[in-house]
Amino acid sequence: MPASSRTQAYSALGLAPGAVPAEIKRAFRRLAMHWHPDRNAGAEAAERFRQVKAAHDLLIRGGGADTGPDDVADDMAEPDAAPVRGPDQQEMLWLTVEEAIFGDVQVLELTRPEPCDECDGTGRITLASSRMCACCRGSGRVQGRHGLVRCDVCGGRGYSAEAACEACEGSGERRAGRKLRVTVPAGMWPGRTLRVAGKAQPVGDLPPGDLLLVCQLRLHGLFALRGEALEVRVPVPLFALLAGEPVTVPVPGGETVCVEVPAGTAVETCLELPGQGLPLRSGGRGALHVVMQPVLPEALGKTDIAALRALQAALAGREAKLYPALAEWRATWLGMTPRKSGKKSRKKAG
Ligand SMILES: [Zn+2]
Ligand SMILES: [Zn+2]
């Protein structure tokens, strides 16, 4: 067959040259449904239906009649027209932090639309004999907004040898679900792709391609992704941070690690725990970022307040050393110079 007729056939189906058989069949079903004389009474419908069918037959069945030297050139020009296996299929693989780090066995539920088996994707089934149209009860007319109009279901005939497919409710598609057991190896970083050979959705009669599962992290109540690093926020009583008490930090896997924070830490501080974070492309695991978040006591009792007063009294008189920022603020805005040894020193007013 001449290359030009194949090109025309692709264009009649609204496809780019080289479309795979599944795409050709899908386009044919869609167009054939639209232009079928039983469904479309327009003057050009019959001719368009004939063109679409001829294009489908040529591309799928090879057209039969005209073979010759052009055939060879045509096949060489379109090597993609006959792939040896179906396309790969990409899906997201949602993992918890622990599953990504330590691996897991997952049962994936993959659903995607497939042409309905009952009606071959057309949404219509052919009845053994014509039947009175249920929509217009055989009259060929239905009540429209401005009086009686032609019944679209039977094309005004009042009877039809076709009916909407019950299996897919006329949509031509059904959502096919399949379950797949996948062993997720340890060391999945976000974006890492797991290739499961030969498990893509089959297309036509071709051997299926590979299923590509792209790792994504599920939201976690404790661990968060900050850029590429795993982060955990740990609230710590301010006085424990100031005194330098060891802090217990949760790490992935349900364990904890004891972290020493240098005494005198009063602001939010980030430490890194090497080897406790997410898997790295280069192997091993990255650092877990630990954000120590100072928290202040609430609902203080009398004894707590007395203890705080004693602390305040113990620190009093050394503001210049203990609170340099406060001392500078007071000097700038209140005209106070830092107090020393409890001796008041104040600029004279006026
Ligand atoms: Zn009807
Ligand atoms: Zn169906």
TrEMBL record:
Annotated protein name in UniProt: J domain-containing protein
Pfam family, one: DnaJ_C
UniProt record, GO biological process: DNA replication; protein refolding
Residues in CR-type domain copies: 103-177
Keyword tags: Chaperone, DNA replication, Metal-binding, Repeat, Stress response, Zinc, Zinc-finger
GO MF term list: heat shock protein binding; unfolded protein binding; zinc ion binding
Chaperone recorded as keyword: yes
Zinc finger region(s), CR-type: 103-177
GO (cellular component) term, any one: cytoplasm
Tagged with keyword Hydrolase: no
Domain J: 8-77
